[in-house]
Design a protein that fits this description.
Shape: elongated
Mean pLDDT: 87
Strand content: over 45%
Low-confidence stretches: none
CATH architecture of the largest domain: Sandwich
CATH topology of the largest domain: Immunoglobulin-like
Number of helices: 2
Helix content: under 10%
Largest sheet: 7 strands, mixed
Distance between the termini: 137 Å
Strand order of the largest sheet: 3-2-5-6-7-1-4
Radius of gyration: 36 Å
Structural class: mainly beta
CATH superfamily of the largest domain: Carboxypeptidase-like, regulatory domain
Length: about 325
């Protein structure tokens, strides 16, 4: 084979190789815009199993924070063993909102309280950076706590004592104790509530009433001791010239309806439990009263100071 033949073969190989390389597919990988989140508690513990939802609409996010309904979320996922969660393929020109909650059964073993991020940051101040990963931290705090109601041993003869929070009856204290009990036992009432300030009322069959306000902190069990109950007698009546206004309903402290006055009193006699009056036994203290006529709508309001082992009569003119 001559030199010219070798030259021709070399040229053909060069052309063929060039055509081969020209046909190769070049794959260009463009990184996505992602978020890498770490979910922790206010105690700095990483939270495995926390639920995290991402939204691109603030109205949907606000509704989800109220209802814990994440159906309008772009994605809902659970943190891994290290408390981490990753959202990929996001857009840099949108604002994202993050809702997260965690069911904690370690603070009070055998009982669960809710943690969430309603008190913390839930969105980025700036837009995401295109084709890069944004790292951030979500801190959850407890939004529920417990309150334990109990009473001292001197109140043993006053039990059972029913407890109400708002309109909810939460149970009865069955006995009196020398010292504060452990929570969740059967000698007291332990009840889970959302953190915040609320009113409660306790009452027994003898007429003792405890009304107070309590502040419950998330993640804490608050003890509320009902003090010793002593008694006084409180009576309400109307004179005969007010018979047309009967019956009259009497309410103490805006929530304790004690009954109705259904008959008038012929004589103003300042004794305990005058005839034809509405009488109740109450623990000492100041009481606001509201009395309303069912027939005429007439209303009476006032404040009465009831002392232990005494009687107080209120006549409505």
């Amino acid at each position: 084979m001559g030199k010219n033949s070798y030259r021709i073969i070399a040229v053909l190989l060069l052309i063929t190789g060039g055509l081969y390389f020209c046909k190769q597919k070049v794959e260009v990988i463009i990184p996505t815009t992602d978020v890498d989140l770490l979910v922790v508690s206010t105690k700095a513990d990483t939270l495995k199993g926390a639920i995290v939802a991402i939204f691109d609409n603030q109205d949907d996010f606000n509704q989800a924070q109220l209802t814990r309904n994440y159906s309008n979320a772009l994605k809902v996922d659970t943190t891994d063993n290290k408390g981490k969660i990753y959202f990929a393929g996001l857009k840099e020109d949108r604002r994202y909102f993050f809702a997260a909650y965690y069911n904690d059964n370690k603070t009070f073993p055998g009982n669960t309280i809710l943690w969430d991020n309603t008190d913390g940051a839930y969105f980025f101040l700036n837009n995401l950076i295109k084709s890069s990963v944004t790292y951030s931290l979500i801190v959850l705090s407890p939004v529920e706590g417990f309150v334990t109601f109990w009473t001292q041993s001197e109140n043993l003869t006053k039990t059972p004592i029913g407890i109400r929070i708002g309109s909810d009856s939460i149970g009865s204290i069955a006995t009196g104790l020398a010292t504060a009990p452990a929570p969740f036992g059967n000698q007291a009432i332990t009840y889970k509530v959302k953190k915040g300030v609320f009113n409660y009322q306790a009452k027994n069959a003898l007429g003792c009433v405890w009304i107070d306000t309590i502040n419950v902190v998330g993640g804490i069990n608050k003890y509320e001791r009902l003090p010793l109950c002593t008694f006084g007698t409180l009576s309400f009546g109307v004179p005969t010239n007010s018979t047309s206004k009967l019956p009259i309903t009497v309410v103490l402290n805006q929530q304790d309806t004690i009954g109705q006055i259904v008959q008038s009193t012929t004589n103003v006699v300042f004794t305990c439990k005058p005839s034809n009056t509405l009488s109740v036994i109450k623990s000492p203290g100041k009481y606001t009263y509201t009395a309303i006529s069912k027939t005429t709508g007439t209303a009476w309001t006032g404040i009465v100071n009831l002392k232990a082992d005494s009687c107080k009569v209120v006549y409505l003119p």
